[in-house]
Amino acid sequence: MTPTKELTDVLGTGALFTGLNADKLDGINSTGFMRVVKSDVADLNQLTVAGCYQIRAVRDNIANRPDKGTSYPNVLVLKGEGTASDTMTQVYCNYDDGNIFSRAGNTVVNSGNNIANKTWSQLAFVTSNVASAQKLQDSQGVFLDRATWNALVARVSALDGK
């Protein structure tokens, strides 16, 4: 049996289906799912809907981008479920050099924390040519296994109780 034949068989029965909602998937509204789209957006301050966007614009035509942002980036917008959530994070990924930038804020108009008022921060990698990356390279003893961490917490807790 083919999918087309199955659909024809079901539709041909005249059966009434109840409890179906074309606007929801498993009871979750479409605003609760991440969008993956190509976008012609020209201003990143206007990009406030959660999703993964491929911006189809050259560098100089993208308003409010990171200073070192390049043309045709991928932008990830993280936001709480639904339209009521006002906190968000934008992650800007250069496609050509791997640099990643982020900023976080909210979508409340005239708020000091509005995403439009936030500056972009560049993520540093161990191999990056910046001071924070050098600190990453020079650091020692940063990573602890769970047993060492638990022992350290127990020791600090014991000292705190004295």
Question: What gross morphology would you assign?
Answer: extended
How large a portion of the residues is in β-strands, by DSSP E?
15-25%
Q: How are the strands of the biggest sheet laid out side by side?
A: 3-4-5-6-7-8
Summarize the amount of helix as a percent range: 10-25%
Ends distance: 75 Å
Number of strands: 8
Give the secondary structure arrangement, pairings included.
Layout: H1 3-11, E1 24-25, E2 28-29, E3 35-39, E4 51-55, E5 74-79, E6 87-93, E7 100-106, E8 121-122, H2 131-138, H3 146-161
Description:
The chain is of the alpha+beta class and 162 residues long. It folds into 2 domains: 29-123, no CATH class; 129-162. The protein has helices at 3-11, 131-138, 146-161, and strands at 24-25, 28-29, 35-39, 51-55, 74-79, 87-93, 100-106, 121-122. The protein has a 6-stranded mixed sheet with strand order 3-4-5-6-7-8, with no helix packed on it. The protein has a two-stranded antiparallel sheet with strand order 1-2. A hairpin with a 6-residue loop joins β6 and β7 (100-106). The longest helix is centred in the C-terminal third of the chain and has 16 residues, at 146-161.
